[in-house]
Amino acid sequence: MNVYHYILIYLGVMSLLGFIMMGIDKAKAKRHSFRIPEATLFLIAVFGGSIGSILGMYTFRHKTKHKSFVIGMPAILIVQILIVVAIILSPIEIVVFD
Q1: Which among 72, 78, 5, 13 is positioned nearest to 41, based on CA atoms?
Q2: How high does pLDDT run on average in the chain?
Q3: Cβ-Cβ contacts under 8 Å for 62 (sequence gap 6 or more)
Q4: Cβ contact 36:21 at 8 Å
Q5: What secondary structure, in 3-state letters, does 28-95 show?
Q6: What is the pTM of this model?
Q7: What residues have CB less than 8 Å from 12, skipping those under 6 apart?
Q8: pLDDT per position as a tens digit, 63-93
């Protein structure tokens, strides 16, 4: 496996986590239970879970009326895409030892 595989696996796991957390928070909101802090939802997105968080927002119709989420989550995704593209186009070879 090369570094790109590790990046994809990491982003996939974080996106799944972001999706699940949006679903859990929506369920807790319906039950008027203790909620997941918005900062936690954003941190999951920042650490690679933005795609799953966005999918979770619209799948569960959760946080879609909050401008900070509607604008912030796609902004985080754009930055992450730029970082991945920069890594791919970088002339520096990243070696991962298996």
Answers
A1: 72
A2: 91
A3: 22, 23, 25, 26, 29, 56
A4: yes
A5: HHHCCCCCCCHHHHHHHHHHHHHHHHHHHHHHCCCCCCCHHHHHHHHHHHHHHHHHHHHHHHCCCCCC
A6: 0.86
A7: none
A8: 999 999 999 999 999 999 998 888 888 888 7
